[in-house]
Amino acid sequence: MFRKTLLVSSTVFTLCHVVAHAADVPPSSSVKRQATSQHAVPENVRKPAINVPAAVKPAPSVVRQAESAAEQITVSAARTPTRTDDIGTALTIITEDQIKTQQRRTLPDILARQPGLNVVRSGGFGATTSIFMRGNNANEVKVRLDGMDINDGSSASGMFDAGQFVTDGLGRIEILRGPQSGLYGADAMAGVIDMTTAQGQGRFKPFVRIEGGSYGTFNQVLGARGSKGRFHYNVELSHYRMDGFHSIPRYIERYYGATRDQRHKSNRNDNRGANIRLGYDVTHNFDLGLTARLIQSNYHTYSLYDLQSEAYGGGPVREQNTQNEAIVRGTAHLVSWNGFLDQVIGLGYMTNRNRWNETGLYATGPDYYRSSRLKIDWHGTFDFKKYGTLLVGAEHFHETFDSSHTAASAYDTGYHTQASMDTTAGYGQYQGNWNHILYGAANIRYDSNSRYGNYVTWRVAPSIHIPNTGTIIKASAGSGFHGPTLYQLFFSQIGSSYSQTGNPNLRAERLIGYDAGVEQKLLSDKLHFGATWYDNRVKNLIQSTDTVQMAGGYPYYQYSYDNVAQARMYGVEAFLDWKALKTLDFNLNYTWTHARDLSNDTVLQRRPQHKFNFNTTWTPVQDLTFSGNILYVSGWRDLPVIGTSYCSTCGKGHGYFTIDIAANYKINRYISIFARADNLLNRQYEEPIGYLQPGRGGYGGITVSY
Predict the structure, then answer these.
(1) What is the pLDDT of residues 506-520, one digit of tens each?
(2) What one-character-per-residue DSSP string does 18-29 give?
(3) Which of 307, 310, 321 is closest to 128 using CA atoms?
(4) What is the pLDDT, as a whole number, of residue 316?
(5) Which of 17-21, 319-323, 505-509 has the lowest mean pLDDT?
(6) Which spans are transmembrane here (predicted)?
(7) CA distance linking residue 448 with residue 524, whole number of Å
(8) Which 3 state secondary structure label does DSSP give 474?
(9) Residue 184: closest CA among 208, 149, 160
(10) Residue 27, pLDDT above cutoff 80
(11) How many other CB atoms are found less than 10 A from the CB of residue 572?
């Protein structure tokens, strides 16, 4: 009896910890109590938690069962804790333990191995990184951190650049695939990547991690997490350094006749960060939360275009990009009327400051790109018990953009563009079930933007459980939109032989998408597999345009943007998870993507048709863990960099596969050592064309904790 009670208590505590990760539902004692409600956890753990003596340590098998139950809860799919089986949304959950076991230090490294995603990075750590989801453009994926929208408003496209984003401090990543604008508004056209910072619990736990290895890697992380009475905290400081990675392929060097010095020029990145999560339980039903992430980076590059410039007589060239980013959000969370109404009000702020500079004869820098985003939001969930839940919410955004450049010569004109816009939105969602067979959620949202107009979006996501079979049929359908950026609307640069101007008449891109799939559980839920078919159609795609004008008898090139394209993306996502033993897990996923521009019947660039990932985790003895990973990506169409005229898909990137292994051994309660090898077979591959990715690399280090 004592063991059974301990199992239930431990499981509920872990599930509460998962729920507390959600920035939309800040952690509190009230949330922990509600984690036992029928809408938060599986039926077999819907029991009240009891106090467990501190001296009692749960058995490893109990902990594993609790963690397994916690991984079946999604907070982002419906903005309220929901079993993953009970909603039709195609999603993937990545836990802090998975990140640590695989030793994925940067966000691109962990996302590249997930179904439905293709990650493109122009070089090594720190380089510009795009995330394509289900064949859609990278700027059509909304990325959030602790409830704050963090797509980069200082860039031309508005996409989230994951190049400088490290995984330290992250407690959970939820990837929602398919149009999510019905809950999340603009930019959630292809899906949402929702990240939350880990919450501190229990005693004071400080740690230090030091890591070194290939390409001049030297990383240090220190932090502490825990709780004291009503106050809980998690603070981590990090410094990542890479110096010595050369990203130009050999064939490009031969084409431009690179010298020995040019062949040995490398990229250098210096990244400093701070990740903070604080919380205070004011009363049993009211709590406050604060999260912050600060990033400061200096990235020095020597790319194929710098080599090209030198080959044409431009002199020694170097590029430098300096980034300063801050993301801050505070929340107040109140549960009223014995849990009938659960509401959160939040205030978030994000600012991004980028400085780009290039040296050389034809250098035109420095360029400055600055943006800010202020967000005020509220949402409340009404719990009608067996009649389901009703979610209502409202948001307001104020965004600014500022870009400037000082003229450096008679042929280099300066510019300065400032603009802002406001968005006000409201949304609602009903979620319920019928006889524990048919589950579902339906939502609708209205967005009003001061620059590009008003839009209504919606989404339905049913899930059917076939009794006594372990079979679940899932489906979803919805609409999405992506608004033009302030850069695309108002940027203005008039040169001596060209002009680049925004188009204030741009409309938002629109999407209609659906998916349907089947999942099956066998062997007492130890084997779980399934497949999903998806189909998305997009219109009003924003693309750059160019026209030739005549001025004084000479051609004058005018660049701008317009809604000129439409596209269709469809494909299959499949997965298999097998817990072969208590100490051995196998996970694999496969993605098939077909993406075409319907306006000219061409394939979309940088969308590989096939992707396969296999991962295994093995704990042969206590405190020793191994992780292995195989990633295969097929070929894709891309912009060629040499030997042909301009064409966005005339180049063909070659497919590749990589093998990674990692090991971690806990020597005692204070010291752990770890090592990993990435790209074990030293595959030389580019993604995108013209940018080598790191070859074989070995890394290792030590973690000291208390």
Answers:
(1) 999 999 999 999 999
(2) HHHT-TTS---H
(3) 321
(4) 78
(5) 17-21
(6) none
(7) 48
(8) strand
(9) 149
(10) no
(11) 17
Confirm if 483 and 187 have CB atoms less than 8 A apart: yes
Question: Mean pLDDT across the stretch 441-450?
Answer: 97
Three-class secondary structure assignment of 392-445 = EEEEEEEEEEEEEECCCECCECCEEEEEEEEEEEEEEEEEEEECCCEEEEEEEE
* Structure-token match 């039903």, residue found: 285
Highest mean pLDDT among 18-32, 70-84, 222-236: 222-236
DSSP secondary structure string, 579-594? EEETTEEEEEEEEEEE
Span 259-314, pLDDT tens digits: 999 999 999 999 999 999 999 999 999 999 999 999 999 999 999 988 988 888 77
DSSP β-bridge partners for residue 658: 631
Q: HEC profile for 264-284?
A: CCCEEEEEEEEEEEEEEEEEC
d(CA 286, CA 211): 41
Q: How far apart (Å, rounded) are the C-alpha atoms in residues 580 and 143?
A: 34
* Cα radius of gyration rounded to whole Å, the chain: 25
Q: How far apart are CA 52 and CA 14, in angstroms?
A: 13
Q: In terms of pLDDT, which residue wins out, 231 or 47? A: 231
Cβ-contact 499, 478 below 8 angstroms: no
3-state secondary structure of 705: strand
**Other beta carbons within 10 Å of 72:** 17
Burial class (CB in 10 A: 0-12, 13-18, 19+), 237: middle
Rounded to whole angstroms, the Cα distance separating 587 from 42 reads 23
Q: CA dist 44 to 27, 463, 512, 600, 623, Å? A: 23, 20, 38, 54, 30
Integer CA distances (angstroms), 589 to 108, 546, 578, in order: 17, 41, 12
518 closest CA partner among 460, 573, 468:
573
- Per this entry, what is the length of the chain? 706
How is residue 670 written in tokens?
Answer: 């204070």
Domains, the chain, ordered by start = 92-113+187-705 (2.40.170.20)
How far is the C-alpha of 293 from the C-alpha of 326, rounded, in Å? Answer: 6
Exposure class string for 511-541: b at 16+ Cβ within 10 A, else e: bebbbbbbbebeeeeebbebbbbbbbebebb
Structure tokens at 449: 């933007």
Kindly state the average pLDDT of the residues 151-176: 95
**Long-range contacts (CB closer than 8 Å, 24 or more residues apart) made by 97-101:** 97/67, 99/167, 99/170, 100/664, 101/617, 101/625, 101/627, 101/662, 101/664
Q: Which residues face 320 on adjacent strands?
A: 300, 357
Question: What is the rounded distance in angstroms from the CA atom of residue 319 to the CA atom of residue 301?
Answer: 5
Residue showing tokens 């004592």: 2
pLDDT at 583 over 90: yes
DSSP code, position 200: P
Is pLDDT at 531 greater than 90 in this prediction? yes
Local confidence band at 68 (pLDDT 50, 70, 90 cut-offs):
low
